[in-house]
Amino acid sequence: MQYSLVIPAHNEADNLPPLLAEIAALPPFRRPAEIILVDDASEDETAAVMAGLVAANPRLRLLRLPRRSGQSAAMLAGARAARSPWVATIDADGENDPADLPPMIELAIASGADLVGGLRRERKSSGSKQLASHIANGLRRRVLKDGCSDSACGLKLVRRDLLLRLPSFNGMHRFLPALVQIAGGHTRFIGVNDRPRRHGRSNYDNLGRAARGLIDMAGVLWLKRRGLAAAVAAAEEAARIEEPRIRAGRHS
After folding, report:
1. Buried b / exposed e across 32-45, counting CB within 10 Å, b at 16+?
2. Domain 3-227 carries which CATH code?
3. Which of 5, 122, 135, 194 has its CA 20 to 30 A from that of 81?
4. pLDDT tens-digit profile of 57-96?
5. pTM of the predicted model as reported, rounded to 2 decimal places
């Protein structure tokens, strides 16, 4: 499977070099075809570090957003620039383990899923962050019924064409499993490693993220109840199945 790896980053100058070194150590047949670094208007040395990394590695590409736009915008910018049929995402802070990418690829191939999402095991974040995440995931899972216990995990693998058809909004990266399902796609999930942040501090606060998440969840629920994407996808699939039968009938 050929895939592009998108790494959104805001103020992650110290975390990017060791992360890229780990990605380079992946098995050759499971390394990404390209790595797209997306600088979300960083205020530290991230842009300079990215430029140095790109100069040393022809598989790296660099995008810079002119103003702070958020992780969803950075993810979509990278996906639009990607040249592969699949897009993987990973957080730039080092909390996600690149070694989990090969098993995710194997699961996508074996299951035929349109999205494979990571479920973080043995969380290493602070107690308050874990509690907030547990509450948010539980509420989202009960309301949206997406079957995902960790929608905010940064490790995801998704078909690029499907990702670019999804409704886009700030915060959509936390609702990708539900959005893919609403669009008629199939999702699978796999346990992945969780690691402590190497350097710096998180770009999110629990209270602000929770408030925005409730508003976003209401919007996704509206799409689930009123959207037509799944019905259209089912009709297209039925047409693809029926067409060979019609052709066969004409020749009989």
Report:
1. bebbbbbbbebeee
2. 3.90.550.10
3. 194
4. 989 999 999 999 999 999 999 999 999 999 999 999 999 9
5. 0.83
